[in-house]
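REQUEST FORM: STRUCTURE PREDICTION
Request ID: SP-0412
Submitted by: Lab K.M.
Chain count: 1
Length (residues): 129
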Amino acid sequence: MKVWKAVLIGVSGLLASAGAAAAADVYAPVPAPPAEPGYAAQGFYLRGDAGWSWLDWSAAEEGANAPIAGGGVGYQWGPMFRTDLRFDYGFNYDLGHGEEASIGTATVNAYIDMPVDFVLKPYVGAGVG
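STATUS: Completed
RESULT:
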């Protein structure tokens, strides 16, 4: 009887320690540090633009306007600085007298993003095109 008690206690101890060892092996990922307010990750990004354009040109009649669409690719260099190359296209401006014109533009831009922790991010930008 003493042997059975010893075996039962030994097996119980083994099972209890095996469960604890398995629980200790469970993978728990280390949480990432919180991002700084207003911080954007580095890397490439795509952009898209849509709007309306009013043409101010002496040869066009008043009211020459058209929808405009564009897109581009850019690179975020750090928390506050990014650059991009974009192309915009204005569709069918009515120049009057049955004439229409479409206008395309390409620009290279640089931006300084303000480190503000808010939904809207103000920025200062300049471009050449």
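NOTES: The first strand starts at residue 43 and ends at 54.
Reviewed by: T.R.
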